[in-house]
Design a protein that fits this description.
Helix content is about 35%, strand content about 25%. It has helices spanning about 1-20, 45-50, 70-85, 100-105, 120-140, 160, 170-190, 220-225; strands spanning about 40, 55, 60-65, 90-95, 115, 145-150, 195-205, 215, 230-240, 245-260, 265-270.
């Protein structure tokens, strides 16, 4: 066993000398893929329990998916507000052009400290992510970065913008191809630069589906393969007054992929339209 340990140590040392430090390691307490550099707070204890950690992991990719009106953007805003209080630089890629400063303040967001970007297409989005991560790290190398893309489903490809007919299967497949290429380019940047990257995806109906899943996400499976954490949120019910006017909604949050604890944990919490998430929850 001692000879085997010596060989392993010699191989790792020689490999790192030739290909760079941290290019090879052993799974010891000193280094482990599960040992991330930190976490971005969610501002929601129920979500933290589902994740099994105190927030979204730095150096990893996270996906939040759900139908329309299920609280995806609200959860992102809650995370931004909590992250800003910890000095984390937050960048929002608003592909839907839907964020407003008055709404974001409900979730504790300081709009003056939030970098807002409206990318034209998916190709440009990934180039901009890489650019902004590199620029922030040049100015403040030790500062963690939280990047939210809300949503990847709403961002067209450059080909869609150039061609009049974007309804063909080829165009829909192009969206998935571009996302896959972009993720392969930036995945190392995310890990090396102490950045948490969060994608918001929309669950849409599958017309005519009689069997199997009746929901799908645009953009193929690339994000699913690259993500270390995947969360689904769904509205369970509206919270209503006696006169049936809604003042909030009950949300179920569930992990469908989790490389930190066991998956398929779930919790429900109440979201209030004029208050956000109450601290006791």
């Amino acid at each position: 066993m001692e000879d085997k340990d010596k060989i392993i140590t010699k191989v790792v040392n020689a490999f790192t000398k030739k290909f760079g430090e941290s290019s090879a390691n052993t799974l010891t307490k000193a280094f482990s893929p599960e040992k991330v550099k930190g976490f971005v707070p969610t501002g929601n204890l129920c979500v933290d329990w589902v994740i099994g950690r105190p927030g979204f992991p730095l150096g990893r990719i996270t996906e939040i998916a759900g139908p329309y009106g299920s609280g995806k953007s609200s959860l992102c805003a809650s995370s931004i507000g909590a992250a800003q209080k910890q000095g984390i630089i937050c960048v929002l890629f608003d592909t839907e052009h839907s964020y407003e400063s008055s709404w974001s303040r409900t979730w504790g967001v300081n709009p003056e400290e939030l970098i807002l970007i409206n990318p034209e297409h998916v190709q440009g989005l990934f180039d901009q992510v890489k650019f902004i991560v590199g620029m922030i790290k040049e100015e403040q190398p030790s500062t963690p970065i939280f990047i939210i893309i809300d949503s990847i489903s709403a961002s067209p490809t450059a080909q869609e913008l150039e061609q009049e007919d974007s309804t063909s299967g080829k165009q829909r497949g192009q969206h998935a191809v571009v996302i896959g290429e972009g993720l392969r380019k930036i995945s190392n940047e995310i890990w090396n630069q102490n950045t948490a990257l969060l994608f918001v995806s929309q669950l849409k109906d599958n017309p005519g589906m009689m069997y199997g899943a009746n929901k799908h996400k645009l953009g193929g499976h690339a994000i699913e393969f690259h993500a270390g954490l995947m969360i689904e949120v769904r509205r369970q019910a509206y919270l209503k007054e006696k006169d049936e006017s809604a003042y909030g909604q009950r949300i179920e949050v569930r992990s469908v992929k989790n490389k930190f604890v066991e998956p398929f944990r779930s919790r429900t919490y109440d979201l209030y339209f004029n208050e956000g998430i109450r601290k006791k929850e």
